[in-house]
């Protein structure tokens, strides 16, 4: 076997040292991991224990609150019972007192009613005598008043008839004068406003105006005038169809309708030219 040189021995020693270091590190790492796992487990156990203590404390607090609430409800109920008993006792006392008061007032009312009946009888007797006297006086006064009213009415009737006769005569004179003044104003072809009060005259005038062929409602619209100035294409379809439409629009137009289409504006130009 060949002899090892110095450098070879050094490498072998270094390798052994490195292997020992790795083994040591691995052991340290394993120990650290084991300690960390133990610490985590311990922390988990501590956390669970804390949660359990918290849960138990909450349950205890809830139980104590329930007991306190039950106790408070019992106390409240007892207080309400005492209050109800007290109120019932007061109510019974008040009812007894009210019954006594009603009995006393009933007796007083009966005595007052008896006295009032006696007083009423005396007053009625006195009033009957007074009415008899007043009736006699009233009959005499009424008879005199009727005579006075009849005389006054007769005089008023005579005065009214005289005034009515004078008014009729004055109206006849005024009507004659008004007719003469109107006749002086009349001219051939002129219809006075007073004549238009007659419905037969005013209806004829309205009919004449409504059938006039002059399209004032078209001349007054600027937008219609702009459309009417455009050229118009020939109508589509047969001539008979176009004539029917034209005739129907003419009837509407004479009644006051406005043109809506270019074709209708062209017919309006024909009607007004």
Q: What would you note in describing this structure?
A:
With 273 residues, the protein is mainly alpha-helical. The protein has a domain at 213-273. It has 6 helices and no strands. It has helices at 6-185, 199-210, 216-219, 222-228, 239-254, 262-272. Helix 5 crosses helix 6. The longest helix has 180 residues, at 6-185. The radius of gyration is 64 Å and the shape is flat. The termini are far apart.
Approximate helicity band:
over 70%
Beta content comes to: under 5%
The number of helical elements comes to 6
Shape: flat
Q: What structural class should be given to the helix and strand makeup? A: mainly alpha
Report mean pLDDT, rounded to a whole number: 82
For the record, give the distance between the C-alpha atoms at the N and C termini, rounded to a whole number: 145 Å
Order of helices and strands: HHHHHH
Q: Write down the Rg.
A: 64 Å
Low-confidence stretches: 211-234
